[in-house]
Amino acid sequence: MAYDILARDGRPIKKDGDPVKAMDITVEKIEQLDESEKSFVAVASTEDEDRDKDIVRQNGWDLKNFKKNPMIPWSHNYWGIPIAKSLRTWVDKKVNKLLFKPKFDPDDDESMKIFNKYKNGFLTSFSVGFRGIEMNWRDEENHWSGGMEFVKQELLEISAVTIPANPNATVNVNDITESQNLLQLGYAPYFAKTESGLFYPVRQQLAEYYHPEVKAIEDMDGVQEVYAKVFDSEDELTVVGYYFDPEKWSIEEIKTWITDNNEPTYKQHYYNWKKSDENWEVDTIEEEAKLPVFDEPKVLTSDDVAAAAQDDSDIDIDADADADADADADEKSQEEILFELGKALETMVNEQMLKMADALATAFDNVFDKILVELDGIKKLIIKKDVAPILKIDDNNDDIVPDDSISKNDDEIEIDDSLISPNDDKSNSDEIIEIDDDTFGNNNIVVNSVNSIFQQKLKEIFVNVKKDKVNIEF
User: Which range marks the domain in which residue 80 is found?
Assistant: First the structure.
């Protein structure tokens, strides 16, 4: 899905006041791999609908600014050193996809490490960072589940990433503790039905807040306050939302209470991203934000809970994958496990299909090779028996063309089967095919005779291929 790119402290990154968004894609395979240049061609974006029904129209890409400085960072890290640059970026109208050709730095060990991971298939994903210029809700009556259509968008960067479709993808501003923000802990950034009650957030950037505390409000039945602290701040705890008991509070009562008991605006911060011809510049901007307004609560599902973000700053992608999988197995949800199993099954099926396709292609190549041999044999037979007046042989294009003149004699023509099939060592008398020379007196009879011989040989070829069988290992 298209998600807002957040800094590691939870604050959003914006350009010209608009959120910088990302959409990930898993690349089926890379093309035109050039080992000497350390480059290849890959897909950066498609027009496929994602699981949240978001669509990016490929003819709406504005690539002008990106081409001035086509740097490729690691995991949208605008504070780090780029690991590659794009030699060429373009929209292929035939396949309706955004393509690019990344070149990795042969003098940088981290860059080479990542290049080899893509080359060997251990990394398969890229993510576009972009600013939406024109966009529409695909369903005006249901914004929650209808998705968005990005009609025009500015490409800011293309990132190498490990995990596609990560709604909590983050980048590093500086070293931090291992604490998780409210989004990572499962707090909804919207009015939602949860197991603890109806949650109404009064701050939009929940990823900026850590260490939540829930307290009941005195003399207020069925209401609890959720406090939290801004990342890396000594400020007092801030109220970021409320839980309401749905048996004691109606939706209209909740909305009225929120408006009456909270300031209409508050201060929040974001990172303003600028891109010069040589590097990135990021400034912290303070802005006035309005109190969030929601109409109806949404049912909170496992899809809406962001997974714990990983610290990608060290790019430690050489760790033992099996050990990591064992350590994280208990933390994986059933949905994640089923998804991984589905991907593994898809890979296995694709591999078997490729094996079958290769085997069938080999078999058909074998058949057609033998057919060509038989055609050549028939041509040589006709030349040898001097029937050019009936079938003229054009040695330039190997075509057999009728001729008006007819050659006749009273001799019987004996055609040895070995002439028709040069690869067949058999030439016994039992396999002699006899054709009366009178048959060459009529053009149609000649054609029918040659067809009959050729059809007979085709049957023999297919029977023999069938007997040989095609072995396909699974």
Answer: 1-175+309-331
Q: Quick one: 196 and 158 in the same domain?
A: no
Cα distance between residue 89 and residue 99, in whole Å: 6
Q: Are 175 and 8 in contact (CB under 8 A)?
A: no
Cβ partners under 8 Å of residue 176, min gap 6: 8, 9, 231, 232
**Same domain flag for 22 and 88:** yes
Cα distance between residue 350 and residue 408, in whole Å? 60
Cβ(282)–Cβ(271) under 8 Å?
yes
One domain, residues 85 and 96: yes
User: What band does 145 get if pLDDT is binned at 50, 70 and 90?
Assistant: low
Q: Which of 225-234, 288-297, 316-325 has the lowest mean pLDDT?
A: 316-325
200 close to 218: Cβ distance less than 8 angstroms: no
Domain count, the chain: 3
Query: Is the same domain home to 184 and 159?
Result: no
The residues that bridge with 89 in the sheet, in sequence order, are: 100
Check whether residue 201 and residue 241 sit in a common domain.
yes
Q: How many CB atoms lie within 10 A of CB 50?
A: 17
As a whole number of Å, the end-to-end CA separation of the chain is: 36
| C-alpha dist (Å) from residue 34 to 8, 85, 162 | 35, 15, 22
Distance in angstroms (rounded) separating the CA atoms of residues 251 and 198: 9
Distance CA 79, CA 273 (A): 10
For residues 13 and 78, the answer to whether their CB atoms sit within 8 Å is yes
Q: Which residue has better confidence, 428 or 69?
A: 69
Rounded distance, CA 336 to CA 333, Å?
5
HSE toward the beta carbon, residue 46, CA cutoff 13 A: 13
Radius of gyration of the chain, Cα coordinates, nearest whole angstrom:
35
Lowest mean pLDDT of 10-24, 82-96, 392-406, 431-445, name the range: 392-406
The Cα 311–Cα 159 span in angstroms is 15
pLDDT tens column, 101-118: 999 999 999 999 999 999
In a domain, 346, yes or no: no
Distance of CA 141 to the CA centre of its chain: 30
CA–CA distance, 301 with 72 (Å, rounded to integer):
34
- 20 & 141 share domain: yes
Return phi, psi of residue 273, to 5°: -100, 125
Tell me which DSSP letter residue 44 carries: E
**Distance, CA of 123 to chain centre:** 12
Contacts of residue 155, Cβ cutoff 8 Å, sequence gap at least 6: 61, 62, 63, 65, 66, 89, 98, 128, 129, 130
Q: Is residue 347 part of a domain?
A: no
* Residue appearing with tokens 């294009």: 397
